[in-house]
Amino acid sequence: MKEMLIKILEFFGLAWWVEIVTDSPRCTYYFGPFLEKSEADTASLGYIDDLKQEGASGISLRVSRMKPDELTIADDLGETFDRDRVPAFGGQLPRPSV
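Now predict its structure.
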């Protein structure tokens, strides 16, 4: 039941999302959707810890109702990545467009 409600809220752009922007690397990450702001707030702590462990710095966070078009925007590389997209051959990433 909860997942159905999240899908409905997401459709209308009313689900809660965590937006994390890092200065190095220059990326914007979106995590969600969440039914309640408190769930997004709690989950955001783990996302920040993961990014710090990966060496990210200059981390800023925003939790709000939104409907992101992409889950990761890598400004440094001029590329975007979709976590739902799986390469045809395991272990390969999509080639950047030139």
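Residues 86-93 have pLDDT under 50 and may be disordered.
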